[in-house]
Amino acid sequence: MNTAPHAATPDPIDAVRGLLADAGVLARHLREVLAQLTGEPVELDELIRRTAVARRTVEDLLAAIGTDLETTGSAHRLSAQARERYRESFALDELGTTAPSGAEQLALMREFVETGPRPAAALDHVTATPETALRRAEWLRDNYDLRGANLLCLGDHDLTSLALGLVVPSVSVTVVDLDERILQHIDAVAAERGFDVRTLHTDLRFAVPSAVEAWADLVFTDPPYTPEGIGLFAARAAECMAGPNSRLLVAYGYSTRTPALGHKVQQELLRLGMVFEAILPQFHRYFGAQAIGSASDLYVCQPTAHTRKLALRQVPGIYTHGPQSVEAVEATASPEFLGAIGERLGSPVSSLREPGWSKPIRRQPQPPVYDLRSDPGPWLARMLLAGNADRVAFLVDNNHPDITSERAQRALSELVGAKYQLRFHRSTPDSKHALVVADLVEPDSVAGYLLQRAHGKLGNVWREALIAHVDPELTKREAKERVAALAPVPADLDLRLIDLPRHRIADLLTVTG
C-alpha cells in the first residue's frame, strides 16, 4: 500500500495574491475585477468594459482564481464559499467607499502651508493651494494601491507628502528636496502628527540619493516649468522608478497663448520614452503663477522598456528666475581672477572645478577650488561633507547664507568642525565673491570619523567609529547595539550621512560626541 503523503492542494487565493503583488500599485484595477466577480455572474466582455482592464490581464486573473470561480456559459463569478474570503483578503468592500477630505483635514493642511517656509523665487517656488495638495493625495488613494507602496516626492514645497499623511495615514512617503527649510518643516510636522514620511537632501542636477534609486512605485513631482527642468526631474524620476508598473505623475502648466512651449516640454517627456496615460487639465491650482492661469495639468506617465536606458543630459540652468536660471550664464574666470584666488590660497589655481557631491572629494596634489557661484544655499555644506582633501576651497557669492553673518559662519564651522577648520575670506577675489578655505583636521573623534566617510552607510560607519575611537574591545554586535540606542532617528542608520537633511546631521553629530 502506498503510504506517501499527498501534496497539499494549492489554494487559488495564493495565486491571486501573487498576481496582485506583481501588479504593485496597479493592483487596484485587479481588485476592481475581483469586486465585480462577487456579485451576479458577468460576461467576460462586460467585465472588461466595467473595469477597463486589458482582456489578457483579466484572463490571467480568472485562470489564477481557478476552482474558486463559477462559470455558467460565458459568465463568471466567485463561488459562494469563496466570496467572503476574497472580500476580506483583498479589502474589496473598501473600493469606492472613500470620501473627499473634510473641513478638519483642510484646516490642518492650511496650517501646514501657512507655517511652512516662504516660497523661494530662485527655485521657482509657487505654492499650491491646500485644496490642491489634498486633491493630489485623494487621487493617488483612489487610483492606486498604496498599501506597502514606495511613494516618492521629488521636491515638495507644496507639502503633498503631508497631505498624503492626512488622507492615507498608513502610506509611507519619501521626500527628496534641495531646500533645507522644507525638509525641516516636513520632519517637524510628520513627527508631531505621526506621519510615515522620511526626508532626504539632494540637488537633482547632481544625483539622486542612493536609497531611492530603482525604489519608487510612484513618483510625484511639480518641477520648474522649463523644458530643461521637466527633462531633468523626469530623468531623475526614471532613475528612481522600480519597474514597468511604476508611474510618474508630473504637474505642468503652460499658457494657451504659448502652445509651442507646452509642445517642447512634452517632447522632453517623450524623449525619455514616457507614455502619457492621462492628462488631467487644470488639476492643480496655485497662489500666483498667473501667467498660466494659476493652474497646471496632471500628467500620468508610464515608462517604457527604453526609459531607464536613455541618457540623461544634465544642465546647470533649469529655473526661470535668478542665478540658476536657463538664461544665467557664468563668465569664464579670467587669469587675473584665478590669480587672486591663488594668492589668497597660497597655491596656483589654473581653473575652477564644477560642483557635485555624489562622490567623495579625494586628496589631491594641489588644493582644488570649486565654483559655487550659483549655489542656492545648500551646496557649500554638502561639498564640505563630501570633501576629504587636505585643503579645499570654495568660491561663493558674497551674500551666501552660510557666510553673511558671524552666527551663520559659526553654525557651518560647528557642523563640520570635527573634520575641517574653516576660514572665510569675504570680498575675495573681488567685491562680489568670497572664498571659503577648509583645512583638514585630525579625525580623533566619532564625529570626525563619520564626517570623513559621509558616503558610507551610516549605521556601519558609526559602528566602526565606536570601535576605533571609543572602545577597541567592543565587538561589532555590541557597537551596533550601542549605535541603535544612540541614533536620534533609527531609520537614518540605513542611509548615507551625505543624503540626510542638515538639521538631522547636526542632531546626529551632537549625540556622537
TrEMBL record:
UniProt-listed InterPro entries: BpsA_C, DNA_methylase_N6_adenine_CS, rRNA_MeTrfase/Polyamine_Synth, SAM-dependent_MTases_sf
Organism: Saccharopolyspora oryzae
PROSITE patterns: N6_MTASE
Origin superkingdom: Bacteria
Residue ranges of domain N(4)-bis(aminopropyl)spermidine synthase C-terminal in the record: 109-290
Region of interest (Disordered), ranges: 351-370
Protein name: Bis-aminopropyl spermidine synthase family protein
